[in-house]
Amino acid sequence: MSGDRPSDSGHPDSETAAARSALRAMRDAFDRSFALPRQSPAAQTEEFAAIRLGAEPYALALRDLARLEAARPVVPLPGGRAGLLGVAGIGGRLVPVFGLAALLGLERTPDAPRWFALAGRDDGREEPLAFAFDRFDGHVAVAREALDEAGSAGPRPHVRQVLRRDGEPPRLVIDLPRLAAALRATAQDTRKA
Amino acid sequence: MERTWSFGRKIGLGFAGMVMVTVLTSLATAVTLTAVLDKAEQTLSVHARLVMLAKDMDSATEKTTSAVRGYLLVPDEATLAFVSASRKEFLDLLPPMQSLISGRADEEAFTTIVRREADYWSEVQRFVQLRQSGVPLDSVASSFQSDLRPKARDTRNAIDAFTQRQETLLDANWRDTVAWSRSATLLATALGALAILAGSALAFGLTRTLKRQIGSAVQHIRSSSTELQSAASQQASGSREQATAMNEITVTVQELLATSKQIAESAQRVARIAEETAVNANNGNQTVEQAQEAIGGIKRQVDLIVSHMLDLGRKSQQIGGILDIINELAEQTNILAINATIEAAGAGESGRRFGTVADEIRKLADRVGNSTKEIRGLIEEVRAAVHTTIMATENGVKTVETGTRQFGELASGFRRIVSMVGTTTEAAREIGLSTKQQSTAVEQVNIATANVAQATKEAETSALQTVQTASDLARLSQTLLQLVQTQAKG
Fold it and tell me: What is the ipTM for the molecules in this complex?
C-alpha cells in the first residue's frame, strides 16, 4: 500500500515537524510585525488584485477599483451592446455589469461570473460600472520596478502593464479606467445619437 | 409323358412289344400249323385210312369171290374155311371204318356197303348150300354167274363208290391242307416280317431316343462338368486366397491379442494411477476448501477495510466541505481586506494606519487561504490515497472474489476431478475387464480362425478333388458322347 502513495509526499512525522516550524515562523512574523516601525507601502510598491479570466492570469490595480464584491444576479437587457451582461443591484443602485473576458475579446466561460470589480468614484461624479470575472487569485503587491509597460501594441486591448513575479507566469494589468472611460464615451455617444 | 419315362421302362416297353409281337406271331403260326396239322391228320388218318380200308374191303370181297369160286371148283372145307376167313377179314374191317366215318353221306355209303355185302354174303351162303346140295355144277356155275357175281359186283361198286368218295375227299382235304400250309407259311412270314419291322422300329426309336437324350444329357454333363471344373478351380483359388487371408488374419489376431494384453496392463496401471490421483484430488479438494475459508476471511476483512476507506473518503469530503467554508471565509476576508485597503487609500493619513491593519488582515487571510490550499492539497492526497486504496481494495476484493470464485471453481474442478477420476477408475476397470474378455474372445477368435484356416485348406483340397472329379467327368462324358455318336453312326 505504501507504493500507491504519491512519491512527492514526505514522511508524516517530518511533515508535522515542518508544519510546526511554519506555525512558529508565522507566529514570530506576526509578533514581529507589531515591533517593526510603521511605513507606507504605497511609496515603494503597487497593489493589485490578481484575477483569472478563463485560464489566463490578469491583474487589476487596486487604485483603479472602487470595490470588489461578490457577484449577484444580473438582469439581462434587450439589445445591449457587446460585453454588457445586464444590470445588477449593487449598493442600492442599478449598476451596468460588463463581462471583462468579453471586453478583452476572450471566450466567455459557461460558468456564471463569481466576482464583480466596481470602477468609478463614489463621489457621484462618475457612474459606477461593474466588471464581472471568474476567479479571484488573491492580493499581489509588487515593486514598481517589476512592472513593464505593455505599450500600444500589447498582446490584448485595454492592457496597460505586464506584472512579473518569480515562479509565476506574467500577468497582464488591465487598464480599467481607460476601459471604463471608453464604455462611458460609447454610452454618451449612444445617448446623443 | 415320354420324357418322364426311364430308359429301363422304355427298353422294357420295347422288349414287351417285341415279346408281344413274337407271341402273336408264334400263336398265329401255332394256330395255323395246328389247323394245317389237323387238316393233314384228318386227311391222312381218316380219308387215306378209309381209302386203304375200302381197298382192303374190296380186296376181301374179291378174295371172298375168289374163295367161292374156288369152292365152286373145289367144294371142301378148306375152301369154305377160306371163304369164311375172307368174310371175317371183311367183317374185321367194318369197326375201324365205322369209327372213322363221320358225316351222313359217308354213313349212307358205308351202310350201302354193309347192306350190299350182307346181300352178297346171303347169296354166298345160298350158293354154298346149293353146291353142297348136289345141284349140277352148271346150274351152280350159272347161279354163280347170274346171282352171285352181280351181288359181288354191287358190293364192290358200293365199295368203289365209297373209295372214290374218300379219295375225292382226300384230294380236297389235301388241297385244303396245302392251301392252309401255304397260308400258314405266308402268315408266319408276314408275322415274322412284321415282328422284324416292329423290332427294327423299336430298336430305331429306342436308339434314336437314347442317342438324343443321352447325347443331350452328356452335353449337359460336359457343360456342367466344365462349369463345375471352372467353379471348383475358382473355389480352389478362392480357398487358397482365403487360406492366405486367414493366415494374415491369424497373425493380426495374435498381434491383437498381444495388444489387448498390453491394453489390459495399461488399463490396470491407469486404474492404479487414477486411484492415487483420486486420493491426491481429495487432498487438494480439502486444501482448496481450507484456502476458500481463509479467502472468505480475507474477503470479510477487505470488505471491512473498504467500508473504513469509504468512511474515510466521506470524512475527507466533509473536511473538504469545511475547507471550502474556510477558504470562502478567507477569500471573503481577503476581498474585504482589499476593499478596506482601497477605502484606506482614499481616506488619507488616517486611513493609512487602517490600511496597514487591513493589510495585516489580508495577509492573514492569504495565509489562511494558503493553509487551506495546503490542507486541500493534503486532503486531495488523502482522498487520492483513499481512492487509490479503495480502487486497490476493490481490485483486491475483485481479485479475492475472482480468487474465491476460482477457488470455488478449483474446488468444483477438484470435485469433478475426483468424480471423473472415479469414473476413469471405473472405466479403466471396465476397460481392463472388457480387454480381458476381449483377449478371451480374441483367443477364441484365434482358435476359430485356425479352425477356419484348416477348413479352408480342406476346402481347397476338396475343391482340387472336385476339379479332378470334374475333369474325369468331362473325359467320361466325352467318351460317352463318342460312344453314343459312334453307335449312332454305326
Answer: 0.79
